[in-house]
Design goal:
Helices cover 71% and strands 0% of the residues. The relative contact order is 0.11. Residues 1-12 have low confidence and may be disordered. It is elongated, with a radius of gyration of 21 Å. It has two domains: 4-64, Arc Repressor Mutant, subunit A (Orthogonal Bundle); 73-212, Tetracycline Repressor, domain 2 (Orthogonal Bundle). By secondary structure, the chain is mainly α. The longest helix is centred in the middle third of the chain and has 24 residues, at 67-90. GO terms for molecular function: DNA-binding transcription factor activity; transcription cis-regulatory region binding. It comes from Gloeobacter kilaueensis (strain ATCC BAA-2537 / CCAP 1431/1 / ULC 316 / JS1).
């Protein structure tokens, strides 16, 4: 028996129920994600996507105005997932340095456990990322994740350690981000190297960063 929501979507007629609309939208995004991961963003077209999920191209346009809009939503979804992981990690403790360690561990774990998502929001082809980051809302999950990292960095820098820190909040936050991204990228793009377990890499990197703040 055919899917009634799919029948309604053919020919450009939208599903009537909100639940059906949400389901179709999720189906479009899932299929688009699969096509981008398998064949690259250049291979994605509204016509190909419509064929993949057995809808008309007109039906796809009822949900997304272009393939760039689809890329943007996929990227936003990925950052929402990352932001949620970081929030959960740093809520466990009020200690600034412990929060930084938790943030590091959560970020690296997210990147290595949600490989497709991480590649889509950080490592994928330039054409896809350019489309994904175009015309974002001002208060988007990527900006929120960055602000969260800034807050963690500022709390660490405010801990009394004698000598004043040698980096600004932004410099320290972005150094941490570069280190976290570096660990994930190395493991994803060259899994044989480094040979040190990722947990050890994360812990040692955080400790070196903390020591270097006032050395």
């Amino acid at each position: 028996m055919s899917n009634p929501s799919r029948r309604q979507g053919r020919g450009g007629r939208p599903p009537r129920e909100p639940e059906q609309k949400d389901a179709v939208r999720a189906q479009i995004l899932l299929a688009a994600r699969r096509l981008i991961v398998e064949d690259g963003f250049r291979a994605l077209s509204i016509r190909k996507l419509a064929s993949e999920i057995q809808y008309s191209p007109a039906a796809i346009y009822l949900y997304f105005e272009s393939r760039e809009a689809i890329a943007r939503e996929l990227c936003l979804q990925g950052y929402r997932e990352l932001l949620r992981c970081l929030h959960v990690a740093i809520q466990a403790t009020a200690d600034p340095q412990a929060n930084l360690r938790a943030c590091f561990a959560a970020y690296v774990n997210f990147g290595l456990s949600e490989v497709e998502t991480y590649r889509l929001i950080f490592i994928d082809e330039p054409e896809y990322l350019a489309a994904a980051f175009a015309n974002w809302p001002a208060d988007n999950p990527a900006t929120q994740a960055y602000r969260l990292l800034l807050d963690v960095a500022q709390a660490v820098l405010c801990v009394d350690g004698g000598e004043p820190p040698r980096l600004s909040v932004v410099e320290f936050a972005e150094t941490c981000w570069a280190a976290m991204h570096g660990i994930v990228s190395l493991k994803l793009t060259c899994p044989a190297f480094p040979t040190t377990p990722v947990e050890v890499l994360g812990r040692s990197t955080v400790e070196l960063l903390l020591r270097g703040l006032r050395s």
